[in-house]
Design goal:
alpha+beta; 4 strands; 124 residues
């Protein structure tokens, strides 16, 4: 089992990443949002924003309409297990690089979020 951060459902995050990776081989999988900020010690007196922000990067998203990939990846998120919905972003590597510069939430999650692939056990 991967260990992401105390206070998050590591087991379900691992299963979610695997469900996505089974469909689109992932190059990056990042997790941010208010729940991750909580784990990092952010104070309770703040505007929370989305509870979870998931950024998925895969070359496999190429040719798949953006709304379709977001809908499919979002439908694989188990809100009951995680305790809330996720704001899911699905990009090709090239789209991700553009969004880093143009979409503040993407830049923030990339800089401060959790790397879900780095937390995975190696399959050696």
């Amino acid at each position: 089992m991967m260990v992401v951060a105390e206070g998050l459902n590591d087991r379900e995050l691992e299963r979610y990443v695997q469900r996505i990776d089974d469909r689109w081989p992932l190059e990056r999988a990042l997790l941010g949002g208010a729940r991750v900020d909580d784990v990092h010690g952010a104070g309770p007196q703040r505007e929370r924003g989305a509870e979870y922000v998931v950024i998925l990067v895969s070359e496999g998203f190429g040719g798949v309409p953006w709304l379709e990939r977001v809908y499919q990846a979002g439908s694989l998120w188990d809100a009951a297990e995680m305790g809330d919905l996720a704001d899911v972003h699905c990009y090709t590597p090239r789209e991700f690089e553009r969004k880093l510069a143009t979409l503040p939430v993407v830049g923030r999650v990339a800089a401060e979020g959790l790397d879900l692939l780095a937390a995975r056990p190696s399959s050696a």
